[in-house]
Amino acid sequence: MIPYNKRTSILIKGATHNCRKTDIFIDDGKIQAVGEGIRSEFKSSADFEIDAGGDVLLPGLVNTHTHAAMSLLRGYADDMILFEWLSQKIWPLEAHLNGDDVYWGTRLACLEMIKSGTVAFNDMYFFMDRAADAVEEAGMRACLSHGFIDLFTEEKREAEIKATINLHNHIKSRNNPKLTFATGPHALYTVSPEGLTWCAEYATENDAGIHIHLSETQQEVDDCVKNNGITPAAHLDKYGILTERTVAAHCCYLDDSECELLGKRKTAASHNPASNMKLAGGRAIPYSALKNAGAPVCLGTDGCASNNNLDLFEEMKIAALLQKFTTGDPTILPAAEAIDIASRTGAEALRTGGGTIAPGFAADIILVDRNAICQAPFHNPISNIVYACGGNAVRSVICDGAILMHDREIPGEDAILAGAEAAATSLVARREEEIRNQS
Ligand SMILES: C[C@H]1O[C@@H](n2cnc3c(O)ncnc32)[C@H](O)[C@@H]1O
Ligand SMILES: [Zn+2]
Fold it and tell me: Does residue 392 have a pLDDT over 90?
């Protein structure tokens, strides 16, 4: 019997790590020992053993920018310009969302993320108490934020403040260390200076994260400079948003001084290349400038309506190729670094305690199938993982010392697919009824 979603002591034998055969022993949610031949020492302490058969051992991946329940909107609106996509299709549909939709959408998203090797994610959306139910049942880690959109009115701001505080209290009351809270000011074009200030101060008072969209399009930069006389990053900094607990998604149009500013504040930039390419943002993240400035760069998918999946394996490849293509430099963002931004830097940004395969780190790990076609031949497993494999090469996922997927099996998969399909159908039907009534 596989002890799914339950912390266990686990001995993994014969995995490949750093091109060597290794064993790993996990107990109490942490990596206790890693090395060749440790099995004799830990065999009797392990409640469960996994024979890895040469599978590649990696830190679990961390998706630093999602709107998980948007999995229900996959394929609902494609091939549009960002603002029209949001204002004509996405926001009118989201106006019909309810808590059950968010629960099923997040369940579907968690299923997809676990299946492709993700153990933790940074999520900004609505009805987040129901997202918390879904994350807890899936056994993942998540940092949850209410998408704070005040549209520059005091009335909406008061409602968003209430929703944010309610979510924070709700997460505290669950007493689950895998669930954390962040404030979620959506973007500088949807949140007033007063709203930004409140989100920054509340997060600082509570040692919480801040999750925001930043510099996604040229339009955002132009409007910000026109309205405020300063660049987007400088504008957010003015209101205290740029901190070492902040994850800023997209960051495509940052200039050199903004990269320096993020570096100075140790603010993490979440790179979302597939979403940026699909919505034709027009520019790739200034990866080298951010890195040279000391700003952590991590990886995210964005929501399923603009990606349209949550597979960080795909995202690693797209990120590496996009940097090479746009800079004309094939040495930029090599494979090992792509894995690093999909795991360690994200884990550090979300403060998960994982992201590194070493004793004392959280037991958030994955095994990638040694016998998958994408691993043949086995000259360089790291290269294969970034440039050849998709998330479907992941065989097993462990989070906080609990098995979430074993040999690609996750309990309850069919029920999740059925529940999400029904929720998506009903959501779109409600919106269509509204359109019929308007015409
Ligand atoms: C939380 C809100 O954010 C919306 N959203 C989803 N993707 C993007 C994006 O790329 N830029 C800006 N806003 C986005 C989502 O639909 C929610 O309304
Ligand atoms: Zn987003």
Answer: yes
CA-CA distance, 135 to 178, in Å (whole number)? 9
Query: Tokens for 259?
Result: 């990269």
In the reported structure, the alpha carbon of residue 303 is separated from the centroid of ligand 2 by a whole-number distance in angstroms of 6
- How crowded is residue 228: how many other Cβ atoms within 10 Å of its Cβ? 14
For residue 183, give the 3-state DSSP assignment: strand
Alpha helices for 206-311 (secondary structure H):
218-228, 232-238, 256-265, 273-278, 287-292
Question: 17: annotated binding-site residue?
Answer: no
Query: What tokens appear for 43 in the block?
Result: 């065999």
**76: phi then psi, degrees, rounded to nearest 5:** -75, -35
**Whose CA is closest to 420, among 100, 35, 82?**
100
Closest ligand to Cα 125: 1
ipTM summary value: 0.99
Strand partners, 74: none
Ligand 1, atom 17: closest residue by C-alpha: 125
Cα–Cα dist 53/220, whole Å: 50
Q: Any residues with Cβ below 6 Å from ligand 1, and which?
A: 67, 86, 90-91, 94, 124-125, 147, 186-187, 213, 216, 275, 302-303, 306
Does residue 52 have a pLDDT over 90? yes
Q: Is 65 annotated as a binding residue?
A: yes
Domains with residue ranges and CATH for the chain: 10-58+360-405 (2.30.40.10), 61-350 (3.20.20.140)
Please give the distance, rounded to the nearest whole angstrom, from the Cα atom of residue 124 to the centre of ligand 2: 8
Mutate to test the pocket of ligand 1, among 213, 216, 250, 301 (most ligand atoms within 8 A of CB): 213
Q: How far is the CA of 342 from the centre of ligand 1 (A)?
A: 21
Place of tokens 């106006």: 95
pLDDT for the residue 282: 81
Beta carbons of 301 and 313 less than 8 angstroms apart: no
**Atom 18 of ligand 1, residue of closest alpha carbon:** 91
Contact 255, 239 (CB under 8 A): no
